[in-house]
From TrEMBL:
<keyword id="KW-1133">Transmembrane helix</keyword>
<dbReference type="InterPro" id="IPR012902">
    <property type="entry name" value="N_methyl_site"/>
</dbReference>
<keyword id="KW-0812">Transmembrane</keyword>
<dbReference type="InterPro" id="IPR045584">
    <property type="entry name" value="Pilin-like"/>
</dbReference>
<dbReference type="Pfam" id="PF07963">
    <property type="entry name" value="N_methyl"/>
</dbReference>
<feature type="transmembrane region" description="Helical">
    <location>
        <begin position="6"/>
        <end position="29"/>
    </location>
</feature>
<protein>
    <submittedName>
        <fullName>General secretion pathway protein H</fullName>
    </submittedName>
</protein>
<keyword id="KW-0472">Membrane</keyword>
Length: 145
């Protein structure tokens, strides 16, 4: 005699497959979100540097960008500081040398700057922001991990 429906073994198998698929999807989504967070933090820093350069030229005055390597935060002039994700490793090299705790990049009214480069590295990205001393140009370069 045949009964309609599923056996307990069939139901448990389907539940196991669904849980495996959900686990894989969840880990993929979290990795994707972390990658987006890293990208957003890098682009925000790049935008802040470019705004400081533009502000210096338009208002014909020096505009400093302070970078706190311990707290992983940076600040244009006396505005609100912005911070990078906590797992970010940052290295700043200016004309003075490699900074350990804090660094300052100054953009001048004629478009030049003190220059240097910032290297930002996370588990997923490694980039360098080059700041030209003569023109104050700000260029983002992707590096290999």
């Amino acid at each position: 005699m045949r009964q309609d429906g599923f056996t307990l073994l069939e139901l448990l198998t389907v539940i196991a497959i669904i849980s495996i698929v959900m686990t894989l999807l969840a880990s993929g989504i979290s990795r994707g979100q972390a990658g987006l967070r890293d990208r957003q933090a890098i682009l925000t820093m790049l935008q802040s540097l470019r705004q400081a350069h533009t502000l210096a030229v338009i208002e014909k005055r020096q505009v400093p960008v302070h970078i706190d390597l311990v707290r992983l935060c940076y600040q244009v002039e006396q505005k609100t500081s912005k911070c990078l994700p906590p797992e970010t490793r940052i290295k700043v090299e200016t004309a003075i040398g490699v900074s350990k705790e804090d660094a300052v990049i100054i953009f001048h009214s004629n478009g030049s700057s003190t220059g240097g480069n910032l290297q930002l590295e996370t588990e997923r990205r490694n980039v360098r922001i080059d700041i030209g001393w003569l023109t104050g140009s700000i260029i983002l370069k992707e590096l290999e991990l």
